[in-house]
Every structure is written in C-alpha cells, then in structure tokens.
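[AMINO ACID CHAIN]
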Amino acid sequence: AGPWLPYDETVLAELAAQNKPVFVDFTAAWCVSCQVNKRLVLNTAETQSAFGNAKVTLMQADWTRRDPAITVALEALGRTGVPVYVLFRPGREPLLLPEILSPGIVRDALATLQDPRS
C-alpha cells in the first residue's frame, strides 16, 4: 500500500542514526478514527507531497492483531491504544500528533523539522 513501510524498530533506529525524520502511523483495521484519518488526511495527494517535500520516511505500525512489539512502542510513547501519530525528529523529542488529524496539523508538524538555525 503506497509508500508506507511496515513498522520495524531496527529500520527506525537506522533512519534516526542517519538523521532522517520518520512519521509513524500506529493503526489498526478495527480502529475507525484511524481509517478516517488515513482517507481524509494521510493518504491524500496533498499530505503525501508534504511528506515527500520534507523527506520524511513513512512507517505504518499495524496493531490489528495487537502485535507485542507495537504494544511496547505505544507504551514507550505513553499510549495504550491507537490511533497514535508520531513524527520522529532527528536529535529532538518525538512529536506526538493529536488523534484526529487535519492537513494543517500534519503541515505544522512537518514545519518543526525545519532547523531554526539554518
């Protein structure tokens, strides 16, 4: 499905080591708000091109079957359920986005990737 990579801690760590931002969509097939956010925001041409322009790797953590590795990742973020949207930013705290997304929220999150010093 499109440009989304399956969630993988090792790949996430490698991308972080290369100073590459990663957006992780913690989702599940039974999660209604997850599906709405995907359709209305995440998989729209506008949002996909914003991710592309910001050179963000997209990762999808599918929790449909309550994958234990994803449960651990959620708990590490202080969450116990989906949806959870996280922008992992090189050298900075991960940015948690709200559960209900809008294109503006995603754009604002991506704007934080611009280094203020450059």
